[in-house]
């Protein structure tokens, strides 16, 4: 169904959902309308309908957020569910050994999308969110996925822009290319302070039975920890996940 200006109602609904991101989780209707580039009256009407279906919900202070029903549908239908469920017991073991953030990410577009993250209260600062994204060039999981990605994707990322999150973020394409070769050779990526000055990310590839890299398994530790010491535990967990994917 088309509206007077030719845009489908579905298009408008999609614009409403696209406003929500990992940093934007709850908004008043007028702000939502502004960000979705819709009239307040239109946004208001659509929001009410979506709240009725449980796809959006309202806080006590009337702010709008993604509804539990939408989360339920998305979680159940997720194409990545088998990978996440297979990985979970291995991630729990790894988390118990390492005692810091443990996370599983997949390549999604030009970023790494995190399917799962286990944290502990005393762990170092972590910018990763479940269902959140990080750039490929600046995170350890991202670099692992990039190192094993098709050449076209590598080239697109290397062509930039390579945003500097900290002074340590690799922004020189030549150096980044050399790093990717080292990751393929060594089988892990170590990223001290690349995305957050206080944290070191370290990640290894998770392979499907045919050898294809399907995910990156990573930990985020404080800079003073000897991050390289985590590599054997990470490798063992990744291998366990790979073997379980066969069955
Ligand atoms: C990393 O994977 O390198 C990473 C991720 C999140 C952080 C820090 C490092 O907060």
Automatic annotation (TrEMBL):
Q: Which GO terms describe its molecular function?
A: DNA binding; DNA-binding transcription factor activity
Q: Provide the IclR-ED domain boundaries.
A: 69-247
Q: Which GO terms describe its biological process?
A: negative regulation of DNA-templated transcription
Swiss-Prot/TrEMBL keywords: DNA-binding, Transcription, Transcription regulation
Location of the HTH iclR-type domain: 7-68
Name recorded for this polypeptide: IclR family transcriptional regulator
Organism of provenance? Amycolatopsis acidicola
């Amino acid at each position: 169904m088309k509206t007077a200006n030719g845009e489908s109602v579905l298009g408008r609904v999609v614009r409403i959902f696209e406003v929500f991101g990992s940093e934007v989780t709850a908004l008043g209707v007028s702000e939502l309308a502004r960000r979705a580039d819709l009239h307040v009256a239109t946004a208001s009407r659509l929001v009410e309908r979506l709240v009725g279906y449980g796809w959006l919900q309202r806080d006590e202070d009337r702010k709008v957020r993604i509804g539990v029903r939408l989360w339920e549908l998305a979680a159940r239908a997720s194409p990545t569910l088998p990978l996440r469920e297979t990985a979970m017991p291995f991630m729990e073991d790894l988390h118990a050994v390492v005692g810091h953030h443990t996370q599983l990410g997949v390549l999604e577009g030009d970023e790494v999308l995190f399917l799962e993250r286990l944290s502990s209260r005393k762990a170092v600062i972590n910018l990763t969110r479940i269902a959140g994204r990080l750039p490929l060039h600046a995170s350890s999981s991202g670099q692992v996925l990039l190192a094993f990605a098709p050449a076209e994707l590598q080239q697109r990322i290397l062509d930039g822009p390579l945003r500097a999150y900290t002074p340590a973020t690799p922004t020189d394409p030549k150096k980044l290319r050399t790093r990717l070769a080292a990751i393929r050779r060594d089988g892990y990526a170590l990223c001290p302070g690349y995305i957050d000055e206080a944290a070191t990310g370290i990640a290894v590839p998770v392979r499907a039975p045919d050898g294809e890299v399907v995910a990156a398994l990573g930990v985020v530790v404080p800079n003073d920890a000897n991050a390289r010491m985590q590599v054997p535990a990470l490798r063992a967990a990744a291998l366990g996940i790979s073997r379980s994917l066969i069955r």
